[in-house]
Design goal:
This protein is of the alpha/beta class. The chain is 32% helix and 20% strand. Bound molecules: zinc ion.
């Protein structure tokens, strides 16, 4: 176990990163906690419920500095439970979109009510709620920094990115990371809003770098968003082609297709496949046989000779182009 101080680095004037000691295949080298400002600081993502990490955040304060605001990108257990622990020590208010499920789409609200449960909600911090709910465009500022909130659901319904306005850098949480793609595990994860939010960032030409929830800074965050968007469309196309040959199950497809993915991450990959299949089902192009899960069989609603015919391909491309 490394000493907390050795995980504290300065990334830019007025911005430091303290990495939590929770490395894993899902969290990479650990959760990134950001300390923004030089006097009245913002702490972004205090991380897991780890008192040693909270102590390290407090020890990182220099003379004349105080924690004035706590921001949370989303209510996963590796990002948000530390917020209340930190608040107990410093009294600062907590800002976020809302509780974990507060931004759930109508489609996934219905799926969840119908019993869709992949068992991934163990990673959801159900106890989390902010003192101040934020919406897109809300700005919180101090003398030497200014953050603008952007709701970016898809990885989790309450996910937000925070725009640091002077360098136009984006705190991206788990929405955009440099080291990996994001997990989209329904019903918390939702393929369409994820792609829409990604596209919105990809289209911005005014952004500089990204500071993700895990891993190193992203040099050009819009370019990375575009790459991730195209990558997911490419995966979607692979699913379309597999459906041409016959029924598809998320787990079998992930095993056959995600050749570079470590075995331990195959279920996460299968969640992403299921997220896309559910979207196809919403569009009435396929149907699920039986209760939804990673082993569910999905079948075309149109005959095989029509599945990749020009009109259907065009329809899929038109639908995907909206995202
Ligand atoms: Zn997450």
């Amino acid at each position: 176990m490394s000493q907390p101080e050795s995980r504290l680095v300065t990334l830019a004037p007025g911005l430091r990163r303290l990495r939590a000691d929770n490395p894993s295949p899902m969290t990479f080298t650990g959760t990134n906690t950001y300390l923004l400002g030089t006097k009245r600081l913002a702490v972004i993502d205090p991380g897991p419920a780890d008192p040693a990490h909270i102590d390290a955040i407090l020890r990182a304060l220099e003379p004349g500095q105080e924690i004035a605001h706590i921001f949370v990108t989303h209510a996963h257990v590796d990002h948000s439970p530390g917020a209340r622990l930190l608040q107990e020590q410093c009294g600062a208010p907590i800002y976020a979109y809302g509780s974990a499920y507060s931004g759930l789409s109508r489609v996934m609200t219905r799926r969840r009510a119908q019993g869709l449960d992949l068992g991934m909600d163990g990673g959801v911090d159900r106890m989390f709620y902010p003192d101040h709910p934020l919406k897109t465009g809300d700005v919180i500022e101090e003398e030497d920094w200014s953050l603008e909130a952007h709701h970016t659901p898809g990885h989790l319904p309450n996910h937000m990115c925070f725009l640091w306005r002077e360098p136009m850098a984006l705190f991206t949480g788990d929405h955009i990371m440099g080291w990996a793609t994001s997990m989209i595990a329904p019903p918390e994860g939702d393929w369409k809003p994820y792609q829409v939010a990604l596209k919105r960032i990809a289209k911005r030409t005014d952004l500089t770098c990204g500071y993700a929830g895990h891993g190193e800074p992203i040099e050009d965050v819009s370019a990375r968003a575009q790459t991730l968007h195209v990558h997911r469309r490419m995966r979607a196309r692979q699913v379309d082609i597999a459906l041409c040959d016959g029924p598809v199950t998320p787990m079998a497809f992930a095993r056959a297709t995600y050749n570079d993915t470590p075995e331990v991450l195959i279920p996460a990959a299968a969640c992403n496949v299921l997220a896309y299949l559910l979207w196809l089902e919403e569009e009435k192009l396929i149907v699920a046989q039986g209760p939804l899960g990673l082993e569910t069989v999905f079948e075309r609603l149109v005959p095989p000779e029509h599945w990749l015919r020009d009109d259907l391909v065009k329809r899929l491309e038109r639908l995907q182009a909206q995202l």
